[in-house]
Amino acid sequence: MNNSTSNNRQSNDFFWPSYVDLMTSLFVVMLVLFVYSFKLFKDREGELQQANGELKAKAIELEQITKIRRSLQKLEGKYFKYDPTNERHELLVPVQFKAGRDEIQEAYKPALLQAGRTLRSVLKSIKTDQPVRYLVIVEGMAARYPQGDPRNTAEEQTTYQLSYRRALNLLNFWKQNGINFGQDRSIELIIGGSGFYGTGRYQGRREGDNKRFLIQVIPKVGRMQ
Fold this sequence. Notes:
The model has no long low-confidence stretch (mean pLDDT about 80). The chain has one domain: CATH 3.30.1330.60. About 20% of the residues are buried. By secondary structure, the chain is of the alpha+beta class. The chain contains four helices and five strands. It has a five-stranded mixed sheet with strand order 1-2-5-3-4. This is OmpA family protein.
């Protein structure tokens, strides 16, 4: 009897410390899992908040760009026509250059001057809740010679320079008359020449109409550098 009691007491003395150690280990494991899960939750919460903030910023930016594009519709009329396919404006002044020349003839200058004033006026009239910068691309173009004319091949490369000079002459003409887009910090000006190529060209009998200017205004909303 005494031996049995002694054995039971020894068993109890062994069981309870082991049980306490087990429970302590389980508690530590649960605590670690809880801390880890809480960290994952907070990280995820932060990511969601950041993503939500970015989405709100993009939504505001899109709203501003939409507003600007609606305002740019004021360009349409006597001097500009919007091309929805290529998302750009065509200068409607029917400028005709002499073959291979870049000089703007006097007859077209009054209308071109008014077109420049219209463009500047519309850009200045646009009001937005955030800073905005405009990428303004002035592109000159050239018309091909009749089909089969060897000059289409011989002058293919030089027409890039020719159409560029035509666009440059237009900007210089505007500048000489007080329309200097380069002085406006909100405007980044790019001059281009597409020669015999480029999208949205006239074909066939209207090939001669490719002696023209294209104006692209691309708004960029956000912090000004």
